[in-house]
Design a protein that fits this description.
Strand content: under 5%
Largest sheet: 2 strands, antiparallel
Number of strands: 6
Radius of gyration: 21 Å
Number of helices: 17
Helix content: 55-70%
Strand order of the largest sheet: 1-4
Number of domains: 1
Order of helices and strands: EEEEHHHHHHHHHHHHHHEEHHH
Length: about 400
């Protein structure tokens, strides 16, 4: 069974077209959606209809089993495409699992270790769909993003008090999605839509609706990291297309002029929005994050823990959120984990730098840059998360052309 979607094509600089056929395999789409649901852990957000925490955990944890089952159904011959990115991710998952066996918090750490191994296994099973001309995994990921944002928007319309209950920032009122995660999804959908439009892969009407919706959501969430990541990711992606696409050149110049005029006319409002009611001291300390980071750096650890960490955790330190991928990875996976994560990010950057100019490279660059920016104040590169899903999408865009299976 397949899902009908709009078809558009555009040539890449190297001569190979990027095609958008009418159909996406439903099994692959559903497997990706289940994997996406699994990396949306329940948050302490009050919803319109109270959902028992155990039910939320059952749904999100069971989604990984469903994703694995569907991936096996889609890839019955157990074919895989060996890639350096997945190889490094596998090394990280196996090392994290082994270290978790000796963790002080055995059950929680072991669960997270098994989850990461299964998560990477599903990515391996979906690897035959990497490198396809129809960008199937990107399209599946964008459909998931749309699904989440639609629930957020509906929740805000039905119950605005609950949607903006956390410090006046937009969150999920139907499904418990925190404001930072809502902003993350909106930023990725914004950037990928804009690049697809610049490359003539979506219509202007589609792009206009997506941009208006995502910008409104980003403003409503008051999340500076997502805004910065979307901005820098779009700049880098557009720069990679600048010489080969007249639309990109026109858009870049007009956007630059618009930003200068807008910043001049609305400077007080922009500064007020960015300040988010914080003092200069609070802003310089990144809302208290730097205090936690300093405490982690000052805490002595045995050499073995420094090298390999203490096992996967809930990314907290002394009860406070770490809110930095690199510090959280150092705590959980040690310098070894940090090095592996830096390695697969560098591998993707090098692959993008050597890839033929065109929409695939631009989209991959946006996702990689966004994840790098977000990793400073968010966690996720060392555990099953939306960030790893997005890096996997980037890797699939940069993969060599593949035979289109399962259509």
């Amino acid at each position: 069974m397949t899902v009908n979607l709009q078809a558009r094509t555009a040539p890449e600089a190297g001569g190979r077209p990027v095609a958008r056929p009418h159909r996406v395999p439903v099994v692959v789409l559903t497997a990706w959606a289940a994997l996406f649901l699994n990396v949306m852990p329940p948050a302490s957000v009050e919803t319109l209809v109270p959902i028992p925490p155990r039910l939320l955990q059952l749904v999100t944890q069971g989604a990984l089993v469903l994703a694995l089952s569907l991936a096996l159904l889609a890839n019955r011959r157990l074919l895989v495409r060996p890639t350096l990115f997945l190889g490094l991710l596998t090394v990280l998952a196996l090392a994290s699992f082994v270290v978790s066996l000796g963790s002080e918090f055995f059950l929680g750490s072991l669960y997270r270790g098994v989850r990461l191994v299964l998560f990477v296994t599903v990515l391996w099973l979906l690897s035959p769909w990497w490198g396809r001309r129809d960008l199937v995994l990107l399209r599946a990921h964008r459909l998931c993003l749309w699904g989440v944002l639609v629930t957020v928007i509906v929740g805000a319309a039905v119950a605005p008090g609950k949607a903006f209950a956390f410090e006046g920032r937009l969150g999920g009122a139907l499904w418990p999605v925190p404001a930072t995660q809502v902003a993350h999804f909106a930023a990725v959908l914004f950037g990928t839509t804009l690049i697809l439009w610049l490359c003539h892969l979506v219509t202007g009407r589609h792009a206009l609706v997506a941009v208006v919706v995502t910008v409104a959501v980003l403003i409503g969430t008051h999340t500076r990291t997502a805004l910065l990541g979307a901005l820098l990711g779009t700049i880098v992606a557009s720069a990679s297309l600048f010489l080969g696409h007249a639309r990109v050149r026109r858009f870049s110049i007009s956007t630059l002029i618009g930003l200068i005029v807008g910043a001049t006319l609305f400077a007080p409002q922009v500064v007020n929005w960015l300040a988010r009611g914080q003092s200069a001291s609070e802003a310089s300390r990144l809302t208290g994050r730097t205090d936690v980071w300093a405490a982690i750096a000052a805490t002595p650890r045995p050499l073995l823990e420094q090298m390999f960490g203490s096992g996967l955790s809930n990314k907290s330190f002394d009860g406070l959120a770490v809110d930095s991928n690199w510090l959280a990875s150092y705590v959980d996976q040690g310098w070894f984990g940090v090095l592996v994560e830096m390695s697969f990010v560098l591998v993707l950057l090098l692959a993008a730098a050597t890839h033929v100019q065109g929409p695939r490279r631009a989209l991959a660059l946006f996702l990689i840059v966004y994840c790098i920016i977000a990793s400073i104040t968010e966690t996720g590169l060392g555990d099953a998360s939306p960030y790893l899903l997005e890096l996997a999408v980037a890797a699939s865009l940069l993969a060599a052309p593949a035979e289109e299976v399962g259509r």
